[in-house]
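Practice problem. Given the sequence and the SMILES for PRP, write out the predicted structure.
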Amino acid sequence: MSLSEEFAGRVTIVDHPMVQHKLSILRDVNTSSKQFRELVRELALFEGYEATRDLPLEDVEVTTPLMTTTCKMVRGKKLAIVPILRAGLGMVEGMLELMPAAKVGHLGMYRDESTHEPHEYYAKMPEDIAARDVIVVDPMLATGGSATAAISYLRACGVRNLKLAVLVAAPEGVRAVLESDPDVQVLTCAIDEGMNEACYIMPGLGDAGDRIFGTK
Ligand SMILES: O=P(O)(O)OC[C@H]1O[C@H](OP(=O)(O)OP(=O)(O)O)[C@H](O)[C@@H]1O
Ligand SMILES: O=c1cc[nH]c(=O)[nH]1
Ligand SMILES: [Mg+2]
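Answer key:
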């Protein structure tokens, strides 16, 4: 049984042909930091489109040049984007293009190189985070340690409606996140084969933070 079937309704694979095309360029070791950043921004926009598919609509009266009619508009939902630093920062701009009124909370976390455990080093949320629907963004979901810690942090802040949007996931990470929280939904462009001994996603795309910021 696939993860999507096992956790029915809680895993979305965003596999539009344009997404698959862009993801393949993103994976390529020869893709420059500049192009990598552009692709992460574009893929975040596509994922934001899917993540907001269930936003409630309301009827509004609109006068066209010909007549007045009833149309639909998004009902003032309060949203927040929460990137897991550093790599998650690369997805913020694309999400904000789609949701310009969303607020942004920052959660700083790095994975210890030997234990692979996440360490939190920064947190700054909008004051009204508990009243917002939150989309946590991070390009990579490997062991799931960082995302699970981010989700627990946001639950402790009182957040109810929570989604996690990643670009590439290991099956182990998807399972860890979904088992750690009964309600969170996960969106990913791909679920890869697994992880290597250093807990890097295989085939993956390498270290997303280093590729976005050119630090290696
Ligand atoms: O699922 P996990 O096993 O926790 O791994 C995924 C995490 O690792 C990466 O961050 P990293 O620690 O490299 O920090 P960075 O963004 O500063 O590069 C990635 O951006 C995720 O946050
Ligand atoms: O493959 C991986 C795993 C964790 N973090 C990354 O940036 N890439
Ligand atoms: Mg990194």
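Check your answer against the key. The pocket of magnesium ion (ligand 3) is lined by residues 87, 207, 209-210 (CB under 6 Å).
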